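Technical note accompanying the year-one report. For the benefit of new consortium partners, we illustrate the data format agreed upon in the data management plan: each record pairs a sequence with a structure-token string. No post-processing was applied to the example shown here.
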Amino acid sequence: MQERLLENWLISVNEKSFQIPFCQLLTGEGYQVVHMSRHGPFESGKDILAIGPDGVPCAFQLKGSTGKISQKEWAKYVDQAVRLVEIPIVHPSIDEKKPRKVFFVTNGELDEEVRLEINDRNREWERRGLPPLTTIVKGELLARFLRLHDNLWPKELVAYKDLLELYLEDGGGYLDKPKFAKFLQNVLLATDETNKAELVRSLSSLALIAQYAMHPFVEKKNHVASVEAWVIYIASLVYFVTKHDIQEKNWKANFDLALAAIDQAFSSLLDELQARRFLVEGNPMVDSPFYHGRITWLTGLISAYALWKKSKDKDWSEEKAYSFITAYQKHIRLWGEAAIPQLLSTSWFLRLCGIEHQASGLINAIARGICSTNLAPDGKGLADPYHGLAEVVINQTGLSETIQKENFKERSYALEGIIHLLTRWGWRGVLEELWPQFTKIDYVEYKTDNPWEFCLWHTEIGKLILHRPKYPQSWRELQEEADRIDLAYIPKILLEYPAVLLLFLIVYPHRITKDVIKFLDTAFMSM
């Protein structure tokens, strides 16, 4: 069953969606991946550059195939194969003078005529002192993937069932985030915690298992679900390496590859958003209740991506992101507290772009929205961050009653952080106006006991803190509170990557705390 599932996945991916999994395989085998292609015209036939376990530079050309590559199909690839072999590897991390290895990789097979042609060319290349072209085809790939999974592949029936269910999803809808996160956690729990080498090796294997599980979403080009799945993988990685104190050199390659996968998904998402005239999904009548929530979700994600790219490269053009956000900003809504990380992300991006009045106005609107909804005499208040968009909308339309019995009035997980944000931004007049309403709402906050638990979707070990704001409240004291940040319960890895922490918060909105909000505000406002 394991081999059949892997083979089904392997023959269904194209070269672009196959690139990240192959890099994870190389990492698991001890290679150091130093470059991945964006499939542009200047790659010299080299999709992946890596340094082998023996220190030898390696270049790989990837080609997707659903069967055998015939001579006619091979003729399309010959020029790239020639450049792969004949043009030296040029990269700061690789010594051009060193002998190199070059590989043609396909998830299909090669016709006999193609093999003979490659053999003839290899004899000519070797006479010229060039490296031979080594081929890696489906059978070898399958064997290498299986070897990497020896100890991590789900052995319990329940975990295996979860993998099959995820793999057989339609892929066009929402990712079941709790299920995906729990599945990855269960896979890691099966690892032998006494074997340090297995702990390290498991990270590459986990990335590949995650790739299999998210395959239907990748196949349907559901870029949002792909981003969320990779963020959940990163959260699982951070949980694992933090808990077991694994050194950075042993996890950084997997972390970076996951970021590269997120980057690719976001790039494709931006292209799709530019190309689409309308953002309605399916039947407009059925989609109508979800529309504003989905726009809020998209603007938050795109804003987080833009903040991430600008933090890495000041010259990165935010034009596509800015164009989308400003065009759709009027459609965003505070549909529940799970939307607040999305709205904060949009606000920070707008402020980075110099549109301070809109950025501040959005924070002001969040505060007023929490008060008006949670203090309204009718209704049950704003859904807390443990309830996602689909659940909230379906309950509002009366099609389900899963949260109808809950009452969210007069309490909020995010309000204290929003108040501290308004304080840091100097909105004293708004705070004075709204303070009588604030004092009727309980601040609620959940803090995990250990930093690694912060990355779990669900944990029963932690502290639930509940209190109400003071009345009256000293402005100086409020400013001091707004400046204090407790970072002890947040993993250090996430603190080193603020944009990743923001993406994590959008995917895991129930981990919102005033400290995370203030930390991210400090990080983004110093850019």
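Partners are asked to follow this layout when depositing records. The mean pLDDT is 90.
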